[in-house]
Amino acid sequence: MRKAFISPTKYVQGEDELLQLGYFVRSFGTSALLIAHRDDVARVKDKLDATAKQFGIAFVESGFMGECSRQEVARLQQIAEEKGCTCTVGLGGGKAIDAAKCVAQGEALIICPTIAATDAPTSHSAVLYTPEGAFDDYAYFKQSPSVVLVDTTVIAKAPTRFLVSGMGDALSTYFEARATSNSYSRVNASLPMGTREGVCPPAVGTNAALTLATLCYEMLLKDGAKAKAACDANQVTQALENIVETNILLSGLGFESGGLAGAHAIHDGLTILEGTHHYYHGEKVAFGTLAQMVLENASDEEMRQVLDFCLSVGLPVCLEDIGVASISDDELRQVAEKACIPEESIHSMPFPVTVEQVAAAIATADRIGKQYKAAKEAHR
C-alpha cells in the first residue's frame, strides 16, 4: 500500500519571531519579494525594518492587490524577475499566502502568517480566484513551503475571531482523518505539482498523520478556551502558543497528509447560501464537522464533547450561527447536492454517501445544535 506524508522543511514559532525573518531570507540570498496587504505590512513594519538591517537583506514590496488570481500571480512573478529576488515571502492571511505559493512554485518560499485562522500556511496547495473574487481553481506544487515562521506576538494582537475560526478548521482535522483512514482514501499529499489528479499513483495517509490529527483534537479540548481568553487580552500564554501550533501545524499536517472527508465538503455546499458569506471558513467547517458526525452516527458522548467545545470558544453549532436563520427543503437539497459532487471529499467517508443522507445530516445537526445551545443557556 502506497502512503504519503508531506510537510514544510522548517516550522518555527514564538514571540517576536519576525525579527529572525532576515536570517531565513539570507539562506536564499539577499532580497525577497514581499507579498502582503499594505495593512499587514504596516502592522509589522518595525520588525521588517529591524530584521532587514540586522541580516543585510532587502524586502521588495509588491503592492499585493488582495486576490490570488492568475493575473496577479503573473504580475508578481514579473516583479520578482525584474528585481532579482532570491526568495518569496508570503505575509498575512490566506490570499497573500496562496499568492506567494503560486509565485514561488515550490521553490524558496517563506510563509509568515499574521493570523491563525486556517491551516493553509504549511500546505503545498493554493486556491486561485478570478480578479473579481470568484473561485477559479486549485493549484498544487512540488513541495510545501521551505520555512513557516510564526510570530505569536503578532497573532495575539489580531482579532480573536480569527483564532477561533482557526480552531473551527482544526476541529475537523481529527474527524476527517479518522474517516479517510477507515476508508483508505487517497490524501492530498499524493498530488504532484500543478495538477489536480496528477500522474503518480494515489496514496493513503500515514499513521503519523492520524496521530497528529488526534493530538490536534486533544489540544483544542485542553487549551482552546484558555487560548481564546489570552487572545482577548492580546497576551501570549502557553495555551495560546499551543493553539497557534494546533491551528497551523497540527491541523495543516493532519489535513494534508490525513485527508479531508465530510466536514469540508459540507462546508463547500453551505457556501451557496448567501447568509454564510459573512462567516469565516473555519466557522462553517465547525458546523460541517457536526453534520459529518451526524452522518456517521457518532456517539452521544462524542457529540456532547464537540458541542461543549464549540460553545466554550464561540464556534457555530447550528445554521443560525452561520447566518442561515431558515432554510427551505429546496435550498437544503442544493447544499447537499453541491457537497456530493463527484470530486468532493465527502466520498472519502468509509461508506457510500447520498444527497438525501447529507441533507438529513445537516438538518439534524442544526436541530441538535439549537436544542443543545438552548439547554445550556437555560441552565446559566
Task: Kindly describe this structure.
This protein has 2 domains: 10-157, Rossmann fold; 161-379, Dehydroquinate synthase-like, alpha domain. The chain is 52% helix and 11% strand. It has 14 helices and 8 strands. The strands form 2 sheets. It has a 6-stranded parallel sheet with strand order 1-8-5-4-2-3, sandwiched between helices. Strands 6-7 form a two-stranded antiparallel ribbon. Helix 5 (94-104) links the parallel strand 4 (87-92) and strand 5. The longest helix is centred in the middle third of the chain and has 26 residues, at 207-232.
Quick overview:
This protein has 380 residues and is α/β, with parallel strands linked by helices.
CATH structural class of the largest domain: Mainly Alpha
Quick check: average pLDDT?
94
**Domains (count):** 2
CATH architecture of the largest domain: Up-down Bundle
- Report the major sheet: 6 strands, parallel
> What string, H for helix and E for strand, traces the elements in order?
EHEHHEHEHEEEEHHHHHHHHH
The CATH homologous superfamily of the largest domain is termed Dehydroquinate synthase-like - alpha domain
Please report which band the strand proportion falls in: under 5%, 5-15%, 15-25%, 25-35%, 35-45% or over 45%.
Answer: 5-15%
Q: Which residues sit in consecutive blocks of at least 5 with pLDDT less than 50?
A: 193-197
Helix content: 40-55%
- The count of strands amounts to 8
Widest sheet: strand ordering: 1-8-5-4-2-3
Distance between the termini: 52 Å
Rg (C-alpha, Å)? 20 Å
Shape: globular
- Which topology of the largest domain does CATH recognise? Dehydroquinate synthase-like, alpha domain
What structural class results from the helix and strand content?
alpha/beta
- The total of helices stands at 14
